[in-house]
Structure formats: structure tokens, C-alpha cells
Amino acid sequence: MVRFADSIGRELAQVQYIQSPIDDDDLKDFSFGKNGLYLPKTSLTEHKPWSFDVASPSKQISDKPISRRFFCLYRQPNSEHPDIYLHEIWKSQIKLEHADVRLKSPLTGEQYLHGTIWVTNASYWKNVTVKYSFNRWVNTYEYEAQYRFHSNDFRNIDQFEFNIDIPQDVDRIDFVLRYHVNGQEHWDNNGGKNYTIETDSASTPQTIISLPHDCDFNEMRFY
């Protein structure tokens, strides 16, 4: 045994004996391995290449439906300067504020079109509806918007709201707004272009013309 001492002969290390927590009964499950180490007998078992366990996945793959992603093909009107937007309301008597597609149920993946509208307070009795289509105006439907509140300021305008359920197989929505008041009708159709929201799959693929590498485009004629 090798001992180390300091300059005056005192030992640099102390030896302390600690009783092993393993009882004699527990030693039955252990055996001496190399370097005098106790090893569990199960670790000495010979494992065949084909003797393996496949752990079952702890998490199952989610079967929740994936919501479709819709894109607005118009600029949200409320992104304009407030003075410009207010002028549009007074000019056409009705104007979309904002509209987008929202998730109705995360379990079923159902979605709906939500939007808000401002109209002039031309009369107490007024009717605001949304005319919309899911197949490019082949079939049309109407939804009566619900009154929310009055602006209570110099603008003297009222806000309405609409929530339209979207069928699962729909990938495009076209809609316009109608305001009926004092025996007259006022429309907001996005300057004649309508309001459109669609998915990627609804876009019509563009026609691509492949030209020869040595083709001079200036010499081509289209009839």
C-alpha cells in the first residue's frame, strides 16, 4: 500500500470505510465481473441479434383535421388611413371594414367567414346583408348581418357583423355587401371587383409557353 505524506509527515489522505447498502440476499442477483465490480446477472445474459423489444410509440398520430388556409385577394379596407376610410363609408353609404376566415371548431376543422361592416346612420330602420357564393356566382346566398353598435361620435355610423359557415369542400368565397335604407339600396362590391377569399387549390394555373433557346422574341407574331 502506498501512502503520501506532507512535509512534516502527516498523511495527505484519510481512509473511511462505508458499509455497502446491498444486503447478502441482494447479492444473489449480482456476480463478480471484471475488475472486481458487482454486475447484475441480467447484464451477463447473452443477447441474440434477433432478440430485441420494439417499444410502442407513446404518442399516437393526431387524427385531427387540418384547417384550410385562405388568402384574401383584396386589401383590407381598414388598412387605409382613417380619414380615407371614413370618406369611403360616406361616399358609398356602406363599406367593409375587415373580413377573414376563422376556425369554428378545432375538433372538426370547421371554419367560418367573419367580417365587420360600417354603414351610415341614415335611418333607424336599416337592413344590411351579405350576398355570397361558393362556386363563382353559379349559386348565390344571402346572410343578414347583425347590428353591433353606433360610433357615438361625429362620424354617425353603425357597425354590423356577419359570420358565415364555410362547407368543408369549399375553396373559394366571393361576396358583396348590400345596404337597404329609406327605400334605397347601396352596394359595396370592392369597386366592381367583388371581395374574394380562396385557398391555393382554387387558383387557376397559368399557361406557360416554352420557347426554343435560339428563338428571337422580337420576331414572333401573335394573332
Mean pLDDT across all amino acids:
78
- Which term fits the overall shape? elongated
Distance between the termini: 106 Å
What is the radius of gyration computed over CA atoms, rounded to a whole number of angstroms? 38 Å
How many helices in DSSP terms?
1
Biggest sheet features: 6 strands, antiparallel
| CATH hierarchy, class of the domain at 71-200 | Mainly Beta
Helical content stands at under 10%
Write down how many β-strands occur, each being a DSSP E stretch of 2 or more residues. Answer: 12
Measured by DSSP, the beta-strand proportion falls in: 25-35%
Which structural class matches the secondary elements? mainly beta
CATH fold label of the domain at 71-200: Immunoglobulin-like
- Order of helices and strands, N to C? EEEHEEEEEEEEE
Q: pLDDT below 50 for ≥5 consecutive residues: which ranges?
A: 47-59, 206-210
Any guess at the CATH architecture of the domain at 71-200?
Answer: Sandwich
* CATH superfamily placement of the domain at 71-200: Carbohydrate binding type-21 domain
